[in-house]
Amino acid sequence: MNHTIGKTMAVYTATGIGIAAFLAMAFSAVAGLAMGGETGAMLVKQFGVVLLCGIGYGAPAVVWTNDRLATWAKALIALVPGTLMYTAAAWWMGWIPRQYGASAVVWSIVAMLACTAVISAICGFVFRGNVRKMNAQLKRRQARRDGR
Question: Which of 3, 2, 1, 22 is closest to 126 using CA atoms?
């Protein structure tokens, strides 16, 4: 299989999973509104948290379009708001197991930060590969234009 086709398939698959997850959460929120009660309220809250985290990670990612900032600054700006929003949402939703004491809270937050770092590293490698490919294409065009 062509390496480019495999990478493209992975990107489209990830996008499809994201769309499916959003739709599933949206339908769960509608069902939660219809059913009411404690379970219904939890489903609606979870949809709100999904939206909040999506905005928290998605909106600041526009910083990657800025060519003037250092990569470390872009990463910080892109990740910190979403991570803070997710941590607050996880605390509010009860996803961080406070009932088991401080060590469970600390380990939950450490695990969350580690997952964020791994996902960010994967995205960074994908973005870096795309930049290298674009740079190679620009060099080929430049060479053709210069008659080399």
Answer: 3
CA distances from 5 to 10, 118, 140 (A): 9, 23, 21
Do the beta carbons of residue 53 and residue 85 sit within 8 Å?
yes
Exposure class string for 59-77: b at 16+ Cβ within 10 A, else e: ebeeeeeeeeeeeeebbeb
What own/partner pairs with CB < 8 Å and gap ≥ 24 does 23-32 have?
25/50
**For the whole prediction, is pTM greater than 0.70?**
no
Closest CA to 47 of 66, 63, 70, 24: 24
Estimate the crossing angle of helix 3-35 against helix 102-146, to 10 degrees. 140
Residue whose tokens read 């060099």? 139
Centre a 10 Å sphere on the Cβ of residue 127 and count the other Cβ atoms it contains. 12
Determine the 3-state secondary structure of 1 from DSSP.
coil
Residue 148 has pLDDT above 70, yes or no: no
> In 3-state terms, what secondary structure has residue 96?
coil
